[in-house]
Amino acid sequence: MSTTDFARPATAVAARATELTKVFGEGETRVVALDQVSVDFRQGELTAIMGPSGSGKSTLMHCVAGLDDFSSGSVRIGDTELASLKDKQLTRLRRDKIGFIFQAFNLLPTLTARENITLPMDIAGRKPDKEWLDSVTSMVGLADRLSHRPAELSGGQQQRVAVARALASQPEIIFGDEPTGNLDSRSGAEVLGFLRNSVRQMGQTVVMVTHDPVAATYADRVVFLVDGRIVDELKAPTADAVLDRMRSLPGSGGAPAAPAPAEPSA
Ligand code: ADP
Ligand code: MG
User: Fold this and answer.
1) 236 CB within 6 A, ligand 1
2) Potential cystine with 254: which of 9, 197, 223, 247 (Cβ 3.0-4.6 Å)?
3) End-to-end CA gap in the chain
4) What predicted TM-score, i.e. pTM, was given to this entire model?
5) Is 7 among the domain residues?
6) d(Cα 119, Cα 6) in Å, to the nearest integer?
7) Number of domains observed in the structure of the chain
8) Hey, which of 37, 58, 102 would you mutate to test ligand 1's pocket, going by the most ligand atoms within 8 Å of its Cβ?
9) Is residue 77 part of a domain?
10) Is the CB of 128 under 6 A from ligand 1?
11) Is 1 a member of any domain?
12) Is residue 125 part of a domain?
């Protein structure tokens, strides 16, 4: 072993998009939703994706999470190239390696909180790790609500169930599309706090789409999309800095924007 082996390794990449392009429709209705996007999501980081409506945020998330196919470029989850997978393998990768949190909580109404949390693992035939489940459910403050059904829970509590469900299988990466979009600001702040705790305390990797500059301050890094391209990036964001960047984005209606900087290199 050479001395360089002791050097601190670069943080591993949980997911990577390389020149990712997604085109919807053709002819008159052709829309380039993603235009050669290259971006890394590093392990143990919380990344926020921001940008105007229609800028490609959801499309980026769906393509990187293997929920939608793409036109060209490549996507890697851990060491796995998504394009190399057959449908069945892709389904399995999504199930085993990826957690999802949506704006609408997507809980099954007939199941209890506990059953909703373990459902993906039950479907996969995997035994949830009891200790891990206990720590996840107590982290999100649901320990005494586990036998309640979604209708007996507030919106904030339902989204906490969704957060616990995403964390339960210790996935490689969790994607959230506006996970606080349906919550009042207090419940939203709680959910964001839990996501950040999962990153800080459990080493989870999280990528979330948000249009809320305050939500973005929970992230380690914000990536800005405009017209299907990454045009900017901010580390350790403050709400003011995020607002400032949003105002100066091309097409934001703010002051005439400077030409978009080159895409950040990997
Ligand atoms: P965002 O999440 O940033 O609001 P989207 O990723 O949903 O943006 O959409 C990016 C672009 O792709 C938009 O122009 C949108 O109209 C288009 N788009 C998204 N989904 C589809 C689809 N299923 N069919 C056709 N166009 C789509
Ligand atoms: Mg969207």
Assistant:
1) no
2) 247
3) 27
4) 0.88
5) no
6) 42
7) 1
8) 58
9) yes
10) no
11) no
12) yes
